[in-house]
TrEMBL record, chains A, B:
<feature type="binding site">
    <location>
        <position position="53"/>
    </location>
    <ligand>
        <name>Zn(2+)</name>
    </ligand>
</feature>
<feature type="binding site">
    <location>
        <position position="86"/>
    </location>
    <ligand>
        <name>Zn(2+)</name>
    </ligand>
</feature>
<keyword id="KW-0378">Hydrolase</keyword>
<keyword id="KW-0862">Zinc</keyword>
<protein>
    <recommendedName>
        <fullName>tRNA-specific adenosine deaminase</fullName>
        <ecNumber>3.5.4.33</ecNumber>
    </recommendedName>
</protein>
<dbReference type="GO" id="GO:0008270">
    <property type="term" value="F:zinc ion binding"/>
</dbReference>
<comment type="similarity">
    <text>Belongs to the cytidine and deoxycytidylate deaminase family. ADAT2 subfamily.</text>
</comment>
<dbReference type="Pfam" id="PF00383">
    <property type="entry name" value="dCMP_cyt_deam_1"/>
</dbReference>
<feature type="domain" description="CMP/dCMP-type deaminase">
    <location>
        <begin position="2"/>
        <end position="111"/>
    </location>
</feature>
<comment type="function">
    <text>Catalyzes the deamination of adenosine to inosine at the wobble position 34 of tRNA(Arg2).</text>
</comment>
<dbReference type="InterPro" id="IPR016192">
    <property type="entry name" value="APOBEC/CMP_deaminase_Zn-bd"/>
</dbReference>
<feature type="active site" description="Proton donor">
    <location>
        <position position="55"/>
    </location>
</feature>
<dbReference type="GO" id="GO:0052717">
    <property type="term" value="F:tRNA-specific adenosine-34 deaminase activity"/>
</dbReference>
<dbReference type="InterPro" id="IPR028883">
    <property type="entry name" value="tRNA_aden_deaminase"/>
</dbReference>
<keyword id="KW-0479">Metal-binding</keyword>
<keyword id="KW-0819">tRNA processing</keyword>
<feature type="binding site">
    <location>
        <position position="83"/>
    </location>
    <ligand>
        <name>Zn(2+)</name>
    </ligand>
</feature>
C-alpha cells in the first residue's frame, strides 16, 4: 500500500518549523506499518527543558498512543544523528529501526561519540540507516547557526 | 544551616516506594543550596514509558520549578548509577554534581559502560561521587529481582 506518506520529508518539515521558532532544527517522526504514529520537533528553548529533543518528545507521544510500553514495531525518522540521551531512549523503547539525516560528529551517539548501539551495556540495538539526505540536513543546521552568529 | 534534610535518605525512601509499586527500585532527588528542588522515582511500569526513569522525571520537574533551562546550581542524588539516557540528560541540563548509590555494571554510563562524562562528545561533565551506600542500594535491587524470579 502506497499512502504517499514520506516520513523523512515530514521530519524535515518539522525541523524547518523548529528553525522558524528559534529552535535548533531537528524533526522526528515515528512510523508503524507505513503509517504515522507520532512526530515532533525540538522544543528545548520554548519549554526551558534541554531534554526536549525531537526524538524524546516523539518517543513519549508514540508510547502514549500505542500503550504497549514498547515501540518494537516502530521506526524512527530523524533529521540529525541522535545524541547520547536519545540513543539511550531508543534502546529502552526497543525501536526497530532508526533512519537519520546528517551525522553529528560533535554530539551524535550512533556513528560518532559513544556509538551506543555497539556497546555491551546497550540492551537493544535497532537497525540503523544513516546519512539520508546528509547534505540537506547539514545545510539546514549550518544556515540556522550562521544566522545566529 | 543544617535543616536536617538528607537527600540520599529521601532517594532511598523513594526507591522503596518504587519497589512497593512493582517498579525497579530507583529514587532521585535534586537539591539546591541544601534544599529540595524536585524528587521522583522510577515509573516505567505504571506509565508504560521505559524512559520514565527516576532521574528523567526529577530533572524535568526541577527544570519546571527553576525555570532557567539549566540545573547548574543543582546536585542530583540517585540510588543507582545513571544509565546512558540519564547521563545524557544530566549533561544537557548541566547538573553540578551527581551522588549515586550503587554502581550498575550492566546499565550504568558513568563509571561503567560508555563512561559518558569522560567522552569528547560530552559537553558538560558534573562532579561525581559514586558508591555511596553501595551495599544498601545493591541489596535493595537484589531483593527486588529475587522476589520476581
Amino acid at each position: 500500500m502506497n499512502t504517499g506518506f514520506k516520513p523523512m520529508e515530514m521530519a524535515f518539515a518539522l525541523a524547518e518549523q523548529a528553525a522558524l521558532a528559534g529552535e535548533v532544527p531537528v524533526g522526528a517522526v515515528i512510523v508503524r506499518d507505513g503509517a504515522l504514529v507520532a512526530a515532533d520537533r525540538n522544543r528545548m528553548r520554548a519549554s526551558g527543558d534541554p531534554t526536549a529533543h525531537a526524538e524524546m518528545l516523539a518517543i513519549r507521544a508514540a508510547l502514549a498512543k500505542i500503550g504497549s510500553g514498547r515501540l518494537a514495531q516502530c521506526d524512527l525518522y530523524v533529521t540529525l544523528e541522535p545524541c547520547t540521551m536519545c540513543a539511550g531512549a531508543i534502546a529502552h523503547t526497543r525501536l526497530r529501526r532508526v533512519y537519520y539525516g546528517a551525522e553529528d560528529p560533535k554530539g551524535g551517539a550512533i556513528d560518532n561519540g559513544v556509538r551506543f548501539f555497539s556497546q555491551p551495556t546497550c540492551h537493544h540495538a535497532p537497525e540503523v540507516v544513516g546519512g539520508i539526505a546528509e547534505e540537506k540536513a547539514a545545510q539546514m543546521l549550518r544556515k540556522f547557526f550562521a544566522e545566529r552568529r
